[in-house]
């Protein structure tokens, strides 16, 4: 996999809202990598969790924090839609924001 350029990671990270607080120490351990997928170009790259802000690597759910292992972004109808998934494929969070291009 190729390394992401900074702007690709920033595009995804800027869409995610910050949680109220970082995940507690007793939260499920994170597998250590988040895979970013551009659904439009079918490109993928991995980023180590220690290189990501907590609000990207973790998602707050009804039962506490869950590790995010896959983030899929796609452009449609003038917006960037970003979906976050857990290791078992569960959809954790969806965010959409308008694009300028």
Strand content: 35-45%
Number of strands: 7
Instruction: Indicate the low-confidence ranges by residue numbers.
Output: 1-9
- Topology pattern, helix = H, strand = E: HEEHEEEEE
Going across the biggest sheet, name each strand in turn.
2-1-5-6-7
The general outline is globular
CA distance, first residue to last residue: 26 Å
Structural class: mainly beta
> What is the overall pLDDT average?
79
Helices, by number, come to: 2
Domain module count: 1
Instruction: Please compute the radius of gyration using only Cα atoms.
Output: 13 Å
Structure description:
This protein is mainly beta and 101 residues long. The protein has one domain. The chain has two helices and seven strands; from the N terminus they run αββαβββββ. The protein has helices at 6-15, 54-57, and strands at residues 33-38, 43-48, 58-61, 64-67, 70-76, 79-85, 91-98. Strands 2-1-5-6-7 form a five-stranded mixed β-sheet, with helices on one face. A hairpin with a 2-residue loop joins β5 (70-76) and β6. The longest helix has 10 residues, at 6-15. The chain is globular and about 35 Å long. Residues 1-9 have low confidence and may be disordered.
């Amino acid at each position: 996999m190729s390394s992401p350029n900074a702007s690709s990671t920033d595009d995804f990270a800027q869409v995610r809202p910050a949680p109220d607080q970082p995940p507690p120490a007793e939260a499920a351990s994170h597998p250590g990598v988040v895979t970013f997928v551009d659904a439009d170009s079918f490109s993928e790259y991995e980023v180590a969790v220690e290189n990501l802000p907590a609000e990207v690597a973790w998602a707050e759910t009804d039962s506490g924090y869950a590790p995010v292992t896959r983030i899929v972004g796609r452009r449609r109808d003038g917006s960037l839609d970003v979906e976050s998934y857990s290791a078992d494929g569960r959809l954790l969070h969806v965010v959409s924001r308008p694009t300028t291009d």
